[in-house]
Amino acid sequence: MKWVLMALAALALLAAVVAITGWSLPVAHVATRQATLAAPPDVVWKTITDVDAFPTWRTDVKTVERAPGSGALTWIEHGRSGSLKLTVEASEPPRRLVTRIADPSLPFGGTWTYELAPSAGGTTLTVTEHGEIYNPIFRAMARFVFGYETTLTSYLDALRQKVG
Fold first, then answer.
1. Domains and CATH numbers, the chain
2. What pLDDT, on a 0 to 100 scale, did the predictor assign at position 160?
3. Between 161 and 81, where is the model more confident?
4. In this structure, what are the phi and psi dihedrals at residue 80, rounded to the nearest 5 degrees?
5. C-alpha pair distances (Å), 141 with each of 15, 17, 25, 160
6. Other Cβ atoms closer than 10 A to 71
7. Is the pTM of this model over 0.90?
């Protein structure tokens, strides 16, 4: 019984350290990833803006549901990690797109800015996340365990497979 109590105390101490560490981290972060794709900007643009086709090339998206909004393109991605409502905040085809998480009830939020530039033989795509993580435990986990760039890297890898 003594060992069980000691193990529980150690777990509680670890949780407290993670929470305190999370509180000390800023809510906001910026992460950027870049990829050179073997497709012209108009093909990359069509791929990243055709939300209905996301389940065909993004393994993290099982289905997409269009959501009624204020006129801006708004959709809900359903996947392994649950549902995520997004909306287009700015669109300048085929060079710049800004999407925002449109669900204030989530423990995180922010935008992704996609910048497309022609390059030799294709397109250079830079994706910048201006993210916010409100929960201090999630903040610590994102900073020290998962990394801020993991989702960006997975997205760009899937896009690279889709467009070449």
1. 2-163 (3.30.530.20)
2. 97
3. 161
4. -55, -35
5. 11, 12, 11, 28
6. 6
7. no
